[in-house]
Write a sequence for this structure.
């Protein structure tokens, strides 16, 4: 079993883009740039893993010539002292900073626009996205619009926007183990006027460095560990079965599934080493799904967040097993690998149809054991919400990445079955 070390490991370095020649099994991902040579796979060039990783922030900033940080975070992290852990490091190094904590869950357009204004006033020359998905995504929006002001409305960034300039440099510092926004080319924004969430996909937004420090994720409450862990599991499974998946992404996705199957429940119950593995698993799967896309679970989760304010990881947890059931006949042999990760003894010897069902049930049982909701009525959905939810999900940018092509009627039936 692959396991990253618990001590600090400084600055793994790679390349921003890897281009692999086409092979019959390598289908270019819908969200990736396609090259005349084959598949373009965007990876972060620098990352720091391990306890104490945030202590490297000043040295890395100075190595880039940066002089002032603009920290994008949320009020809860400010109140709980998590922000202070980072600002203490910056203070000790004499690196100036400004804190922007006006980040809302499921970040709305207006939040990003406020951040763009505050960043311009700050005199900062780089960004630190400190938090879970909402601060990280807000940070990306701020960085992209500052560098590409023609997208100041934010809404025009939906899908694969034609930005010309790289974001203001971002350091990604996650405080949850799930979104992987610190290493992806994606971010999610809420269009409050229309009660919908949308995804922006842009290689220009990838943070230049990630600092994955389990000291910042240890203090997550149990519910947040569960929700973000189920988000990471969803990223891994959807990234593994999407038609855009290929050999490199499969390695990353499958390793993540194994790590999460082994560690999520233990992490939720307070096991510190398991929590470390969850932090690393989240990052690993981010390198995969960011390049190959996701699927119907995310397509259906986004409307639950946009219309009902459901936390993203909670929504994914509700939907993952039912959508796996919907997809199972369109996944080849891959559910065997998922079943094996969850300890199913006949994963590679049993009848394929039976093993597929065992994989679905293993994921469902984990969701139940973690005490995540399993119906959308538990999170406030009513019969009147179903048709609008289905409409939004059908049109979501993630839905076409599903291995089974879903109709709006199919989606409505899945939502209805979860009432």
């Amino acid at each position: 079993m692959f396991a990253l070390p618990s001590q600090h490991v400084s600055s793994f370095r790679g390349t921003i883009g890897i281009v692999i020649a086409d092979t019959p099994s390598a289908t270019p991902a819908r969200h990736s740039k396609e090259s005349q040579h084959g598949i373009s796979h965007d990876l972060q060039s620098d990352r720091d893993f391990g306890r104490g990783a945030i202590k490297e922030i000043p040295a890395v900033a100075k190595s880039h010539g940066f002089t002032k940080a603009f920290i994008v975070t949320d009020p809860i992290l400010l109140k709980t002292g998590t922000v202070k852990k980072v600002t203490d490091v910056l203070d000790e190094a004499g690196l100036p900073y400004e804190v922007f904590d006006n980040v809302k869950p499921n970040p709305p357009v207006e939040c990003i626009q406020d951040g763009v204004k505050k960043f311009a006033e700050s005199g900062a020359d780089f960004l630190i996205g400190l938090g879970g998905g909402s601060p990280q995504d807000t940070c990306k929006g701020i960085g992209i619009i500052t560098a590409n002001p023609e997208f100041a409305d934010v809404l025009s960034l939906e899908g694969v926007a034609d930005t010309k300039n790289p974001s203001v440099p971002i350091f990604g510092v996650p405080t949850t183990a799930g979104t992987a926004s610190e290493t992806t080319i994606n971010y999610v924004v809420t269009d409050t006027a229309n009660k919908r969430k949308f995804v922006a996909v842009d290689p220009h937004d990838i943070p230049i460095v990630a600092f994955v420090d389990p000291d910042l994720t240890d203090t997550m409450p149990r519910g947040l560990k569960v929700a973000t862990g189920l988000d990471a599991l969803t990223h891994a499974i959807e990234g593994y079965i999407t038609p855009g998946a290929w050999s490199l992404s499969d390695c990353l996705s499958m390793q993540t599934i194994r790590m999460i199957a082994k560690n999520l429940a233990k992490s939720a119950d307070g096991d510190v080493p398991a929590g470390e593995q969850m932090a690393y698993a989240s990052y690993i799967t981010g390198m995969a799904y960011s390049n190959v896309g996701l699927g119907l679970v995310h397509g259906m989760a986004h409307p639950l967040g946009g219309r009902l304010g459901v936390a993203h990881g909670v929504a994914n947890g509700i939907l993952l097993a039912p959508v796996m059931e919907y997809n199972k006949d369109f996944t080849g042999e891959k559910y065997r690998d998922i079943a094996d990760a969850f300890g199913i003894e006949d994963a590679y010897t049993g009848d394929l149809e039976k093993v597929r069902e065992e994989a679905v049930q293993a994921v469902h049982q984990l969701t139940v054991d973690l005490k995540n909701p399993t119906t959308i009525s538990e999170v406030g959905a009513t019969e009147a919400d179903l048709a609008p939810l289905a409409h939004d999900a059908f049109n979501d940018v993630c839905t076409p990445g599903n291995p089974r092509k879903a109709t709006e009627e199919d989606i409505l039936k899945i939502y209805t079955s979860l009432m």
Notes: Residues 247-268 form the longest helix (22 residues). Residues 1-38 have pLDDT under 50 and may be disordered. The first strand starts at residue 9 and ends at 13. The CA atoms of residues 267 and 275 lie 5 Å apart.
